[in-house]
Specification:
- The complex is a heterodimer of chains A (209) and B (357).
- Chain A has nine helices and two strands.
- With 209 residues, chain A is an all-alpha fold.
- Chain A has one domain: DhaL domain (Serine Threonine Protein Phosphatase 5, Tetratricopeptide repeat, Alpha Horseshoe).
- Chain A has a two-stranded antiparallel sheet.
- In chain A, helix 5 packs antiparallel against helix 6, helix 6 packs antiparallel against helix 7 and helix 7 packs parallel to helix 9.
- With 357 residues, chain B is α/β, with parallel strands linked by helices.
- Chain B has two domains: 189 residues, Dihydroxyacetone kinase, domain 1 (Rossmann fold), CATH 3.40.50; 119 residues, Dihydroxyacetone kinase, domain 2 (Hypothetical Protein Tm841, Chain: A,domain 3), CATH 3.30.1180.20.
- Chain B has eight helices and 16 strands.
- Chain B has a six-stranded mixed sheet with strand order 1-2-4-3-5-6, sandwiched between helices. In chain B, strands 9-8-7-14-12-13 form a six-stranded mixed sheet.
- In chain B, strand 15 and strand 16 form a beta hairpin.
- In chain B, helix 4 packs antiparallel against helix 5.
- The radius of gyration of chain B is 19 Å and the shape is globular.
- The chains are: A mainly alpha (209), B alpha/beta (357).
- At the A-B interface, helix 3 and helix 5 of A face helix 2 and helix 3 of B.
Chain lengths: 209, 357
């Protein structure tokens, strides 16, 4: 089982990792976007850290929904509504839960990813965060179906996300600001796919701990 | 980085504080969350026109708040879209009962945040609609990109639709007019230097002294192609011809269905311009290019139009939709019919645009 403390740890670790990678994400974004992804994600998760103590006694669904609203109202850019929607939809499927089974975690992440697709209308191969999230979901699902324990299934999911992130390098962007570069977007790793990988990696590290 | 700022984090806030003390007769400012709104808002029974976007494009949008133009403007961080809570709170502050029309530049961040805001406003019982501005001809296809970006036509659309709302147009009429202005407008931009986002601390892109970037948007994002630097006449000729020769442009946009409370997809096609069309021509500085150079550009625009049978009936020349300190310019053509001209000429009284009032 995954405890609420581990979910809270996930958000805390995410904030720390995004702060550490602020320059790196911004640098990736300056190659094919508008050089603000690291700055925006860091600002959003700093707000999350301010908000977290006020909801720690609530259930997991409530915590995630509050985090989603916080991101929507503090990140801006495209990543604000996308990651905000991710956490809000995630929270909606685990309402009133204090701990999560592997299947709960799968439902939670799937609802979040579905929300991202609905808001952003991205398809696989468009060079977006979905290119890291989608293979991760496939790996997590098959891992859990094979009776892997949650940590093992998450390990394969994070590996798949990392591969998906790296696989965005040769892709031509079809969504977001990078799409305006046409062929010039080829050869650069997508910053959104990178932050998605970092967030999933933070989840694994928190569940393992 | 060398900038006239105090602290990087205070850039947007201090700009708003300055606007507030400079123009208390025209506008008010809310700081948590941030939005600029008309001093006399809400104006009863008038459709409220609200826009917004990243900061760094001044005077757009906050400088266009006032009689005859915008009722509200939501500034984001520099070059970053504002957030839905700002747009929703702003809509609540300016809605005079006739509804709120959001004018949204087609940038993914703006679109996703404004769509969320429309849903929030609708859920709160505010009549809301949003119209997308996507006029940048440097983007050729909508299938493999996020579509044409919203650039110069935004300023003209805010002026024209703002005047129509002042004249008593209802929400649907304002939306129809905004859609028409967008479909009649075409723009193209270029840069000869980059610019520096304060929070980033270094230039967004490298541009060698002997090169220029053609087809940029308004955030310094790289454009269509990089070329050796050329003369003002050569650059102007290339851009005006690209605008006037632009073929029909089709894309699918999402508009809000107030009855159903859901997004509906609409297929729109902009018709190409034809000889004899009348235009409002807008030559705009990206911030660092002086007005003297804009006039040299305008002189060439007028010469080409004369030769090609395009009739310029009004013009606007100056820095109105900028990219911080970037050197460069954009050219916008707006095909003008009787309705558009009537509202273009109507009085406007804002910090950034003022006539007849």
């Amino acid at each position: 089982m995954i405890t609420k403390a581990q979910i809270v740890q996930w958000l805390t670790t995410t904030a720390k990792v995004l702060a550490e990678n602020k320059e790196y994400l911004t640098q990736l974004d300056s190659a094919i976007g508008d050089a603000d992804h690291g700055i925006n994600m860091d600002r959003g998760f700093k707000k999350v850290m301010e908000k977290l103590p006020t909801v720690e006694d609530k259930d997991i669904g409530n915590v995630l929904k509050t985090i989603g609203m916080t991101l929507i109202s503090s990140v801006g850019g495209a990543s604000g509504p996308l990651y905000g929607t991710f956490f809000m939809r995630s929270g909606m499927v685990v309402t009133s839960k204090e701990e999560l089974s592997g299947d709960d975690l799968l439902q939670l992440l799937q609802a979040g990813v579905d929300g991202v697709v609905q808001r952003g209308r991205a398809q696989l191969g468009d060079k977006t965060m979905f290119d890291a999230l989608s293979p991760a979901m496939d790996a997590l699902r098959s891992g859990l179906e094979n009776q892997d324990d949650v940590v093992t299934a998450l390990e394969t999911a994070v590996a798949a996300a990392e591969q998906g992130m790296k696989d965005t390098i040769p892709l031509q962007a079809k969504k977001g600001r990078a799409s305006y570069l046409g062929e010039r977007s080829i050869g650069h790793q997508d910053p959104g796919a990178t932050s998605s990988y970092l967030i999933l990696k933070a989840l694994l590290d928190s569940v393992k701990a | 980085m060398k900038k006239l700022i105090n602290a990087v984090d205070d850039v947007v806030k201090e700009q708003l504080e300055g606007m507030l003390v400079a123009h208390p007769d025209m506008l008010k400012v809310n700081f948590e969350p941030k939005y600029v709104y008309r001093a006399d808002a809400p104006v009863a029974n008038k459709v409220a026109i609200v826009s917004g976007g990243g900061s760094g494009h001044e005077p757009m949008h906050g400088g266009f708040v006032g009689m005859g133009m915008l009722d509200g403007a939501c500034p984001g961080e520099v070059f970053t879209s504002p957030t839905p809570d700002q747009m929703y709170e702003c809509a609540r502050a300016v809605d005079g009962g006739a509804g709120v029309l959001f004018l949204v530049k087609n940038y993914t961040g703006d679109v996703l945040n404004f769509e969320t805001a429309v849903e929030l406003a609708h859920a709160d019982g505010i009549k809301a609609q949003s119209i997308l501005i996507d006029d940048d001809v440097a983007v050729k296809d909508s299938l493999y990109t996020a579509g044409r970006r919203g650039v110069g036509t935004t300023v003209l659309c805010e002026k024209v639709v703002g005047a129509a709302a002042e004249a008593g147009y209802d929400l649907d009429q304002c939306a129809d007019l905004a859609r028409k202005v967008n479909m009649y407008g075409r723009s193209m931009g270029m840069a000869i230097t980059s610019c520096t986002v304060p929070a980033a601390g270094k230039p967004t892109f490298d541009l060698p002294d002997d090169e220029m970037e053609i087809g940029i948007g308004i955030h310094g994002e790289p454009g269509q192609k990089r070329m050796p630097m050329a003369t003002a006449d050569e650059i102007t000729t290339m851009m005006v011809n690209e605008i006037l020769d632009d073929a029909a442009y089709s894309r699918t946009v999402r508009e809000w269905d107030r009855e159903e409370g859901t997004w509906v997809e609409k297929d729109l096609t902009d018709a190409p311009y034809v000889e004899g069309d009348e235009f409002i021509v807008f030559v705009n500085s990206m911030g660092g290019t002086p007005v003297s150079e804009l006039y040299a550009v305008y002189r060439k625009v007028a010469e080409i139009c004369e030769k090609r049978g395009a009739k310029i009936v009004r013009n606007l020349i100056g820095p109105y939709i900028t990219s911080l300190e970037m050197q460069g310019m954009s050219i916008t053509f707006l095909k003008a019919d009787e309705e558009i001209l009537k509202f273009w000429d109507a009085p406007v009284n804002t910090p950034g645009l003022r006539w007849g009032a």
